[in-house]
Amino acid sequence: MSSEIRTTTLPSGEAVLVLGQGTWKTGEDRGRRADEVAALRLGLDLGITLIDTAEMYAGGGAEEVVAEAITGRRDETFLVSKVLPTNASQAGVKRACENSLKRLATDRIDLYLLHWPGTVPLAETVEAFEALKNAGKIRHWGVSNFDTDEMEELVGLPSGGNVQTNQILYNLSRRGPEFDLAPWSLKRGIPLMAYSPVEQGALARNARLDAVAARHNATSAQIALAWVMAQPGVIAIPKASRQEHVRQNAAALDIALTAEDFADLDRAFPPPTRKRGLEMI
Ligand code: NAP
């Protein structure tokens, strides 16, 4: 675990580590389940207590793997799950949440997100989230894959200002959000949760990271992760089913990038100069 525990603060005032564990593609293959559970448990041992999952992943299978991994450790875990936009109606959200709670074998989700914007009026989904909060089924709610205009609409709704995060695709090769969404979020104190922070493994093999990695005696994936975690108000949620990767990701918390590193990375992965629509994987 990092000597200096780096956290960011949710609008609720709660501090969360700038590193979490993702679970997309987890729970798809029974033969890999033991490894997936062991990797998540190792992450918890290393202090990476935020776990991100969704009802969509493996059709609920990922939530079941998470349940196994956090058995006996629920109270130390900060659980994030997501409702599909097709379930985002008042009744749909309630039902989806109950199903997620069952699969997760818990009585509450710490942060419940709308997976991406859909056709159900946002005000209805927000109302459903607030009702779940009042019932103690979720502690906080947020959104995912929302661009700046969608965030503007959200915070203008009754209780819309209770949004705790926006989970988006953000990494060195996907810097579009820096043009407006990231400054907008930072100004309002709403942390971004960066998904696919190593571009689903592609940045681990990208030679443009080699020089900075060599300076820190680190891997390219660690540099990609350190860069995301160095952005103000950003939480990275890499997925790692190999224990070696979990260890390396935890160790990336200790990498302090220098001004020279940031300049080199800006040259290799230039920041945006104009607005681009938010990308999604
Ligand atoms: P990612 O975390 O960028 O990449 C995962 C891949 O990178 C895996 O193949 C993993 O390998 C590998 N990896 C992890 N750490 C590594 C390291 N230190 N060195 C080398 N390779 C490493 O991609 P992601 O899974 O798409 O995104 C992360 C999480 O974000 C997801 O799991 C999910 O929870 C969330 N997400 C959310 C959305 C959304 O719409 N809200 C969309 C996509 C993802 P191993 O598994 O073999 O260890």
TrEMBL record:
InterPro entries: AKR, NAD(P)_OxRdtase_dom_sf, NADP_OxRdtase_dom. The record marks 82 as: Lowers pKa of active site Tyr. GO terms for molecular function: oxidoreductase activity. SUPFAM superfamilies: NAD(P)-linked oxidoreductase. Residues 19-267 form the NADP-dependent oxidoreductase domain. Substrate binds at residue 115. CDD domains: AKR_YeaE (cd19138). The active site is at residue 57. This is Aldo/keto reductase.
